[in-house]
Amino acid sequence: MYWDKTNECMPREQLAELQSRRLIETVQRVYHNVPYYRQRMQELGIMPEDIKGAEDLHKLPFTTKQDLRDYYPYGLFAVPLSEIVRIHASSGTTGKPTVVGYTRKDIVTWSELMARTLVCGGTHKDSVIQIAYGYGLFTGGLGAHYGAERIGASVIPVSGGNTKRQIMLMKDFGTTVLACTPSYALYIAETIEEMGIKREELKLEYGIFGAEPWSEAMRKEIEEKMQISAIDIYGLSEVIGPGVASECQCKVGLHIFEDHFIPEIIDPETGEVLPPGQEGELVFTTITKEGLPVIRYRTRDISSLNYDLCPCGRTHVRMNKVLGRTDDMIIIRGVNVFPSQIESVLMEIGDTEPHYLLVVDRIGNLDSLEVWVEVSNKLFSDEVRKLEDLRQRITREIQGTLGLTAKVKLVEPKTIERSEGKAKRIIDRRKL
Ligand code: DLL
Questions:
Q1: Looking at residues 134-151, what average pLDDT do you find?
Q2: Quick check: helix, strand or coil at residue 155?
Q3: Is residue 318's pLDDT more than 80?
Q4: Sign of the torsion angle spanned by Cα atoms 33, 259, 41, 293
Q5: CATH architecture of 5-327
Q6: By alpha-carbon position, which residue is closest to atom 14 of ligand 1?
Q7: CB 183: neighbour CB atoms within 10 A?
Q8: What spacing in Å lies between the alpha carbon of 422 and ligand 1's midpoint?
Q9: Closest residue CA from atom 15 of ligand 1
Q10: Predicted pLDDT of residue 351
């Protein structure tokens, strides 16, 4: 049930002391080793000595993705390149990727944290884990790989794609744990059905899914289709990769590994720190990383923090499931919507497949939103009237729940492109 009970269940007072000690060390290190941080702190008139503990965190400057881009590729590294043993990068929508580097010790830390994550999700020494996150510059594949080996599970490093072959291996190799993005899990589930493989032929028990937002309704769908327990895992390259936070089997929020990362929630407009429970932008400070420590890194992910004790016994704070990013939010005629909100509405209605696309456009001066959604095979061959009823029902639900007028377009099964990694849910023609 636990990978590292001492740290995962540490009394909070002791945790606070540990965090303060590690934060002080980190601030010293970045001040002396990273010119960018030294300059930012000097601009704000802060010396490392002014940070006496975690309570002084708010005095430090924020770091953003733009800062990493401005210092591309290695400008924010806190050690010489000769100390870096691994480089990953996350591809952005615009131009150059964000580059991150790990020392040998960082790789050990990351493996430990991913071991925690996988154990949280039900993996153990005797598990056979199929890693269908992409291997390469993306942190998902290798991150999960090192964690699984650390546990001593049997690892199948298949990477993403080639779905039929994934399923053949899953069946023949007796996979018990599947690690991939939730959208890819759904695609795999659909392909299992198409291939006529019966559930009894598979040994699958758990899914370790993350790297993109997914709703509770989507979880239910995957769990039912695959007959597994699906766990949400969260992370981002700039902070370490996957292994920042993970759900336990209680599935009520994701435990943030606070002995390595200090979380804050801020108002994305003003930067003001918000109290526990309030929703805002998630910010992380790494307190053990050597290669690329980040101070108050703004994730753009929207969440809130819950300090209530979790029944699992872990003392680390839980973040609520991330349902969107500030830059994923679309504003249609003044109404803010995240794709995951539309996903929830669609799933609750049923009769549709969990494959959808939001197409945003501007006609004249007016924003328009089209929701493309796949209809189930059964319904698609039905009468036109039933389809029209469904279209109207979805339109009404979206209007009623989100206060948004959208044009709903029902499309044939299998017309929306499937994802083997992070799903693309929005086409914004306004920017083209
Ligand atoms: O996606 C790391 C990862 C790999 C996490 C595998 C989990 C599993 P990046 O490519 O840098 O890193 O993307 C990070 O993905 O800021 C979130 O917006 C989103 N994200 C990651 N996990 C979740 C999740 C990896 N569980 C960005 N729920 C983050 C919602 C997530 N969004």
A1: 97
A2: strand
A3: yes
A4: positive
A5: 3-Layer(aba) Sandwich (3.40)
A6: 236
A7: 25
A8: 9
A9: 211
A10: 84
pTM for this prediction: 0.94
Residue 300's alpha-carbon distances to 320, 327, 329, 432, in angstroms, are 14, 7, 10, 23
What pLDDT, on the 0 to 100 scale, is given for residue 431? 67
Distance 253 CA to ligand 1 centre (A): 15
Rounded to whole angstroms, how far apart are CA atoms 308 and 287? 23
Torsions phi, psi for 135 (to 5 deg) = -95, 145
Beta bridge partners of 33: none
Q: Quick: pLDDT tens for 250-264.
A: 999 999 999 999 999
Q: How confident is the model at residue 173 (pLDDT cuts 50, 70, 90)?
A: very high
Model confidence at 38: pLDDT above 90: yes
Residue 400, helix vs strand vs coil: helix
Helix (H, G, I), strand (E, B) or coil at 123: coil
Check if 5-327 and 335-428 are the same fold: no
Ligand 1 atom closest to Cα of 328?
Answer: 18
Q: How far is CA 363 from CA 19, 259, 372, 392, in A?
A: 52, 50, 18, 22
Nearest CA to ligand 1 atom 9: 236
Cβ atoms < 10 Å from Cβ of 350: 11
Please check whether residue 332 is in contact with residue 346, taking contact to mean a CB–CB distance below 8 angstroms. no
Which residues contact ligand 1 via a Cβ below 6 A? 90, 133, 139-140, 210-213, 232-237, 241-242, 299, 301, 322, 325
Contact 160, 180 (CB under 8 A): yes
- Strand partners for 241: 236
CATH superfamily of the domain spanning 335-428: ANL, C-terminal domain (3.30.300.30)
Q: How far apart are the first and last CA of the chain?
A: 49
